[in-house]
Specification:
The complex is a heterodimer of chains A (about 575) and B (about 850).
Chain A lengths: L1 H18 L7 H4 L13 H15 L7 H6 L2 E3 L12 H22 L8 H22 L2 E2 L16 E2 L1 H18 L18 H18 L5 H9 L14 E2 L12 H9 L6 E3 L1 H7 L10 H4 L60 E3 L1 H13 L12 H23 L3 H7 L16 H11 L3 H8 L10 H16 L3 H11 L27 H5 L1 H11 L33
Antiparallel strand pairs in A: 1-5, 2-3, 4-6
Chain B lengths: L1 E3 L1 H5 L10 E3 L12 E13 L22 E4 L2 E4 L18 E3 L12 E3 L15 E13 L3 E13 L6 E14 L4 E15 L11 H7 L6 H11 L12 H7 L2 E19 L2 E22 L8 E25 L4 E26 L10 E26 L3 E12 L8 E12 H4 L8 E15 L10 E8 L2 E6 L2 E2 L7 E14 L4 E20 L8 E24 L4 E18 L6 E5 L5 E5 L6 E4 L12 E2 L2 E2 L6 E5 L4 E11 L2 E11 L2 E4 H9 L26 E2 L3 E5 L5 E5 L3 E2 L1 H10 L7 E3 L2 E12 L2 H4 L6 E16 L21 E2 L6 E11 L1
Parallel strand pairs in B: 22-25, 35-43
Antiparallel strand pairs in B: 1-2, 3-8, 3-44, 4-5, 6-7, 8-9, 9-10, 10-11, 11-12, 12-13, 13-14, 14-15, 15-16, 16-17, 17-18, 18-19, 19-23, 20-21, 23-24, 24-25, 25-26, 26-33, 27-28, 28-29, 29-32, 30-31, 33-34, 34-41, 35-40, 36-39, 37-38, 41-42, 42-44
Classes of the chains: A mainly alpha (about 575), B mainly beta (about 850).
């Protein structure tokens, strides 16, 4: 028995030893993912590159036709523009991809003992964050801001919605402070910054130009605020040359970094989106019908021969013109459909389907049109700027043409491979198997190339000079601004909501949820109703109904939208 | 095999036993003299049971009329073309009245041929599938002497599937030995090696390579023979109207191959310290390595694949287990017996994966990483350790009254820094009153036992939920590294889950055990669950790891065994029936959180909602008039603005009914399975309604679009049942019967594209004729002159048909939606067509 007792005692001791708490000492290491990069090891440059790659390149300022249909850039034939469905995409993307990482860069730097060495890193993150927040609030209105993206130990699970007004006031402050914070003598991101390679001078210009954009945006609801924000600026503080433009070229290294329009062709083996040039855009570009804008071929393809002149299959006559745009129709009844999109109107130019294009945050041409408007409306300070709105109007057109030439030189070398290897699959170039030859491609490209003679002829027409009443001049500015903003559909939609220009006809889609009206904002994500209901309902007390037709704070221009006298045709009237 | 139900029975197996334990005890060698030989062989044939049904009268296109293609002049006449984007089947009737440019031609014939629109053969898709066959053979040898026994079993099985080129095969080797070294010490060892090999396993679910999915959305004017011919001639998929991905290309060119090698080993030593005290020490390993290679040729679809791609994936899964148990079994008095044990164990789990994703071939057709110009490695490693001590004690009084007590303490590395340790006890008692009261008439009440128990079971979590950091990636932008914040808020103080339950049961047998009934009532709750809760994105994070909530499960289980007929001639009829009904209730989740998404899958949402049973399907419903009639707006149905509960994925009850007839060597089993009262979300219905391929989508469409006499179009006929809201001048709303006719596309597809989830929620109840087994064992008298000791043959049919199902004639199985907590709980996501199998089985012993 003694022996047995001994065995039992040894056994109990052994298991007791084995399982005492001492054995859990290694548990913390064991339960740490070996791949985890912890805060103390983070290089903020890598975070910034990721934010820029996702926010500028992948999400891109390239819309997919939805906002284009509202501002008059382009129309996607399978889209339903007048639905009142919620659109959580921008919300989710900004909060969980952009603002969290940008806030984190700022938080990491603020926690550093040598944070003075990182002023430029912090300032650039603040500028990008201000840009991202403006995209977010210009989409939804009041949004969580001050209680969003806090450090992990201070996180607020149900963040309140800040008013758009208070957000804008903070964005002005951020952009101004960040511009002042930038120090040309100190270290910056370098190559990790895909936009400017860390160039603090250019970032300062971008911060100021974004402030100009946002100041104009509030200029109808609070002109004094707009004037105040412009009062400390001068032309030299802004983006003024193509070299200043804030953009990132796509990269062929990974699929996510390609132009999404190219990506979709390669991914699905066919052009998934049938995108038509908008009637508004084409009508502006056609100018007087003789001296068309030299950029027209950059934006749109010509109408296919079948539908140029003559009579279509259903007995509708087609005008004998090279370019014809598609109005925003929605799901209208049969008699309004003529000449319903697909193949009968101008398609988006294939130049925009090149693998590498240049999605932008902001271009100098936009700055010039902003200055033209600000000068016209008396918002600019008396010094530091030219006194004539027409001066900036023409600078804007010139910059836009220069940009289009640059864009052509960027994409033209990529087009032969695209057309010969991929686009022959696509329907409207002929049925399957119809291949593009080298000669076809060269013809296509030489037709697209911007010719100096056409520029000269175009500039000689009245469209190149502001004339008429102030309102007529504003319409001319906004029409040309649409072309300058192309393909940034979202900014186009913002400008349309703000000014009502370019004017477009109302759709007769009266059975749609929005009754054929252009939406003024996006609805909040449905998930907010269940996961953040108190704050969501609080926001509703300010916006009224969570509808795409509700107007938020800065959307206060009584003249917007301008409706043209244009009447949608009923068959069999021809229209251009 | 032994099933230990619920936490009560499995406290000893730790948190892995929280949902019950299935204990499989493999056969051991026998001590009888000579060599035991057993041979088992079967052949199985697998055929389609249900197959999705399709309409066969409307071509690819839209709005029943136009193809919207360009006009092409052939032989002096203009014909319409059907473009490659004409994906949906809302086009003109296949009534022979239209002639178009034939889209299904080789490039050389493009725009040169015309074709009259006529239906394709009704079984064009079904013919793609084949009959599957499989064979399986197992040989077992066993033998032993007084001290040592051993059993060796080897098996081989092969299968060819119902989708072309799909093959699997499996080999198993099992060796089990036991040696009594002396009266004091026994060694046991077991080695089991299993090799699984698969070739060209088909893609499932939402993958674009899932051919069944391709068919569900495929335009109904697609000549399958041409797709085959095109693939065989060009070895390319081609791009065709209404075809996502040429299925002949998919099954022939997108190859995959996998091998899984698994070793299960166990050694143990039992020391008999005294006749009543035993010490057991054992250690085991369960390890497998799974290698999977996939090939994509140049030209295959998808931007990641189109320049050629090969992936090589290696997974390693390792569980190491060691424990020591001391067991005492001793009569204390003439009436009392004690059976007690204490033990400790350690479990170490390691999961790792290495993936080489290589793209952009230098030379076509060489599927190797060395042939690639773009190589992206990825890896994963997770480790977890659990240490435990446990004890059990049973006191038996006269072998009819039992009291059991267990206790276990675990230390899990996956939990929070100061919360590694958790303890959970159980107590149970049972009373065999027929043994206690010998006077009870045995011919009426043959056996009677009642039991009651209370138990807790703790559970830990997956590793790595307690620290936050940053996600890094091998993806770069123009050579610049990328890094992003992890969007999950970790639980620094993560605690264990705890299930507490009690159970009452009775096992009663009557009339010399001709009638047996086993009743169980249980009631349990799980608290402090480890949940990944979705939080507002606006917080800057998407997920919060929390300990929260309470879910209650209570229900009954009844097993009934009847033997209505038993004759002297050897005929016997047995009925085994079982029934179980579980009520679940989400009592609470987390303050401020009323709903928890369970499977935010591709279709619909399954959620846990406070105050509801677990597993609600949540989505939008039809807009309705106040009296409940469907509301039609502008000719269409519209979804409600807010989501609502559309059903629950959990069955109200499930059951089985097995009738067994035996006569001499013959036996016949007929097994029915019952699942009643659950809902599923059908992706097949969604896709077929969105695309116009479903057989039911012919309703609301014109029989012919153009009147040949006048050349005019016939009027639309799709008037949706329901009412329209009419507002009069003073703002009063009245409802009148809908009279707006729309085309078939608006009639049907609007429900899918418009997102009316209610349309796609179906009753998942069914009764399945699960299995019929007819077998015959030759009597020893017959085979006594042969070398065989035993010989039996059986014919087995499985999944033969549904006696009840509510899939609305779609040709899909209600069982294609899993109702467990998997990723697609309650969602039918277009998997393989449902099949039935016929098996011939031979068993020989020598």
């Amino acid at each position: 028995m003694k022996k047995i007792n001994k065995i039992i005692i040894i056994f109990l001791c052994a298991s007791g030893l084995l399982l005492s708490n001492a054995c859990t000492k290694k548990y913390e290491t064991l339960n740490t993912d070996p791949r985890l990069v912890t805060a103390d090891l983070v290089n903020v440059g890598y975070l910034l590159t990721n934010v820029e790659a996702n926010g500028i390149v992948s999400a891109g300022s390239y819309g997919n036709g939805t906002y284009g249909a509202y501002c008059g850039m382009d129309v996607r034939s399978d889209d339903n523009p007048f639905t009142n469905a919620a659109s959580p995409g921008e919300w989710d993307f900004q909060y969980t991809n952009q603002l969290n990482n940008l806030s984190n860069i700022i938080q990491l730097i603020e926690a550093k003992t040598n944070k003075a060495d990182f002023v430029n890193h912090e300032a650039i993150a603040r500028i990008l964050k201000a840009w991202d927040v403006s995209l977010l609030t210009d989409t939804y209105g009041d949004v969580p801001y001050s209680e969003s993206s806090l450090p992990i130990d201070k996180v607020i699970l149900s963040p309140k919605y800040d008013t758009q007004q208070s957000i804008y006031i903070d964005l002005f402050k951020e952009l101004k402070e960040a511009a002042a914070q930038l120090d040309d003598s100190k270290d910056s991101y370098g190559a990790a910054d895909l936009v400017y390679n860390g160039d603090t001078g250019k970032w300062r210009k971008l911060a100021n130009s974004l402030r100009l954009r946002l100041a104009l945006r509030v200029s109808y609801v609070d002109p004094a605020l707009a004037t105040a924000q412009m009062s400390d600026l001068s032309e030299a503080d802004l983006l003024t040359t193509l070299d200043d433009d804030a953009f990132v070229k796509n990269n062929t290294d990974f699929p996510d970094h390609l132009n999404p329009r190219y990506y979709r062709i390669i991914n699905y083996g066919t052009v998934q989106e049938s995108v038509q040039a908008h009637k508004v855009l084409i009508d502006i570009l056609r100018n007087d019908g003789i001296h068309e804008d030299p950029r027209i071929g950059i934006f749109a393809d010509t109408v296919t021969a079948t539908f140029k002149g003559g009579t279509s299959l259903n007995g509708y006559p087609f005008p004998n013109i090279d370019y014809r745009g598609q109005p925003t129709l929605g799901n209208v009844t049969e008699e309004f459909k003529y000449p319903w999109g697909f193949n009968t109107v101008s398609q988006l130019s294939d130049l925009w389907r090149a693998p590498v294009v240049a999605p932008a945050i902001m271009k100098c041409s936009e700055v010039y049109f902003a200055l033209a408007e600000a000068r016209l409306r008396g918002l600019l300070p008396s010094t530091g700027f030219n006194s004539d709105p027409n001066f900036y109007y023409q600078k804007g057109i010139d910059a836009g043409i220069e940009w289009a030439k640059w864009f052509y030189s960027l994409v033209a070398p990529q087009i032969p491979d695209l057309m010969k290897n991929y686009l022959h699959y696509e329907g409207h170039y002929g049925v399957i198997g119809a291949q593009w030859t080298d000669a076809d491609v060269q013809n296509y490209l030489s037709y697209k190339e911007i010719k100096d003679a056409k520029i000269t002829a175009f500039k000689a027409t009245p469209i190149y000079t502001l004339t008429g009443s102030n309102d007529a001049k504003l319409e001319m500015i906004m029409n040309q601004k649409l072309i300058a903003l192309y393909p940034d559909e979202f900014q186009g939609w913002c400008e349309y909501r703000r000014t009502g220009y370019p004017a477009q006809g109302l759709s007769p889609d009266v059975n749609s949820e929005l009754k054929g009206k252009v939406p003024r904002r996006e609805k909040y994500p449905v998930s907010e109703q269940t996961t953040n209901s108190t704050n969501y309902n609080d926001a509703l007390t300010r916006i009224g109904v969570d509808s795409r037709l509700s107007k938020f704070w800065w959307d206060a221009n009584p003249a917007s939208p301008h409706v043209t006298s244009y009447v949608y045709p009923t068959q069999p009237t021809a229209y251009q | 095999m032994e099933v230990l139900k619920g936490p009560n029975a499995s406290a000893l197996y730790g948190s892995r036993g929280a949902n019950g334990v299935i204990l499989i005890t493999t056969k051991s060698g026998s001590k009888k003299k000579g060599l035991g030989v057993e041979f088992n062989s079967n052949v199985t044939m697998e055929t389609l049971n249900l197959f999705p049904t399709y309409q066969n009268y409307y071509a690819n296109g839209y709005e029943e009329t136009n193809l919207y293609g360009e006009m092409v002049n052939i032989g002096g006449k203009e014909y319409e073309t059907m473009d490659s984007w004409q994906g949906d089947s809302w086009g003109p009737p296949l009534d022979g009245r239209r002639t178009i440019v034939d889209p299904f031609v080789f490039p050389a014939d493009a725009n040169k041929k015309t074709v009259v629109l006529l239906p394709q053969p009704a079984d064009n898709v079904q013919k793609f599938y084949k009959t599957g066959y499989s064979t399986s053979n197992t040989l077992s040898l066993s033998g032993g002497n007084e001290k040592t026994t051993a059993r060796l079993s080897i098996g081989n099985s092969t299968m060819t599937g119902i989708i072309p080129n799909w093959k699997t095969n499996k080999q198993t080797i099992l060796l089990k030995t036991s040696t009594e070294v002396n009266s004091f010490l026994t060694f046991d060892a077991k080695v089991n090696y299993i090799r699984d090999e698969g070739t060209n396993r088909p893609a499932l679910g939402t993958s674009s390579d899932n051919v069944t999915r391709t068919f569900v959305t495929m335009g109904r004017y697609v000549p399958m023979d041409f797709l085959k011919q095109y693939y065989e001639t060009t070895k390319q998929p081609g791009n065709w109207p209404g075809v996502n991905y040429n299925p002949y290309y998919v099954v022939n060119e997108l190859k995959n191959h996998d091998i899984k090698d698994r070793i299960i080993g166990l050694v143990s030593a039992t020391v008999k310290i005294t006749p009543w005290l035993t010490l057991l020490g054992r250690t085991g390993i369960d390890y497998y390595q799974q290698k999977q290679d996939r090939d994509w040729p140049i030209g295959s679809f998808g931007i990641d694949n189109t320049k050629g791609r090969v992936t090589n994936d290696v997974k390693n899964v390792k569980d190491l287990n060691a424990d020591v148990i001391l067991t005492a079994n001793k009569p204390l008095t003439s009436h009392l017996t004690l059976n007690a044990s204490i033990g400790s164990s350690i479990l170490y789990q390691e999961r790792s994966e290495q993936l080489l994703d290589s793209r952009n071939f230098k030379a076509p057709g060489v599927y190797d990483v060395s042939n690639c110009q773009d190589i992206r490695p990825w890896d994963y490693l997770s480790k977890k350790e659990m240490q435990s001590v446990y004890g059990t004690g049973e006191i038996a009084y006269n072998n009819y009254l039992f009291l059991d007590v267990t206790g276990r303490n675990d230390w899990s590395s996956a939990l929070g820094r100061s919360d590694y340790s958790f303890f959970y006890p159980s107590v149970s008692t049972s009373f065999v009153f027929t043994d206690a009261f010998k006077s009870l008439p045995k011919n009426i009440l043959s056996f009677g036992k009642v039991r009651a128990s209370w138990a807790q079971v703790g559970n830990d979590s997956d590793p790595y939920l307690t620290r936050n950091g940053y996600n890094t990636t091998t993806v770069t932008y123009a050579g610049q590294p990328l890094l992003s914040m992890n969007s999950t808020i970790p639980a620094l103080n993560l605690k264990n889950e705890l299930t507490t339950s009690w159970e009452l049961g009775a096992d009663l047998r009557f009339l010399n055990s001709r009638i047996g009934i086993d009743l169980t009532y249980y009631d349990g709750k799980t608290t402090n669950q480890i949940l990944n809760v979705g939080i507002p994105d606006a917080s800057g994070y998407t997920t919060d790891v929390i300990n929260a909530g309470e879910i209650r499960n209570h229900g009954i289980e009844i097993a009934l065994n009847l033997n209505p007929i038993k004759t002297a001639s050897g005929f016997s009829w047995d009925i085994n029936a079982n029934y179980s009904r579980n009520h679940s209730m989400v009592v609470s989740l987390y303050p401020g959180i009323e709903t928890l998404p369970l499977s935010p899958g591709a279709y619909g949402n399954t959620e846990a909602r406070v105050g509801h049973p677990y597993g609600d399907i949540v989505g939008t419903a039809f807009q309705r008039a106040p009296d409940g009639q469907l509301l039609v707006t502008g000719g269409s149905y519209l979804p409600t603005t807010n989501t609502q509960v559309l059903g629950n994925i959990t069955p109200k009850w499930i059951g089985g009914l097995n009738n067994i007839f035996t006569y001499k060597g013959f036996s016949l089993n007929v097994l029915l399975d019952f699942v009643q009262g659950n809902k599923i979300y059908s992706a097949t219905k969604y896709q077929e309604e969105a695309k116009g391929t479903g057989v039911w989508t012919t309703e609301g469409r014109r029989l012919h679009d153009i009147d040949p006499a006048t050349g005019e179009q016939y009027p639309l006929v799709g008037v949706l049942p329901g009412v329209m809201a009419v507002t009069d001048g003073s703002g009063n709303v009245t409802y009148v019967k809908n009279d707006v006719a729309v085309n078939g596309q608006t009639y049907w597809a609007g429900r899918a594209w418009g997102g009316i989830d209610e349309e796609f929620v179906l009753d998942g109840s069914y009764i399945s004729l699960r299995e019929i087994v007819l077998s015959y064992s030759f009597s020893p008298a017959i085979i006594s002159k042969t070398p065989f000791a035993g010989l039996s043959l059986s014919l087995i049919g499985r999944n033969l048909m549904y006696l009840e199902q509510h899939m609305q004639g779609m040709g899909i199985s209600p069982e294609s939606a899993p109702n467990t907590s998997s990723g697609y709980a309650g969602q039918e996501v277009i998997s393989m067509p449902s099949t039935r199998t016929y098996q011939l089985n031979l068993k020989v012993t020598f």
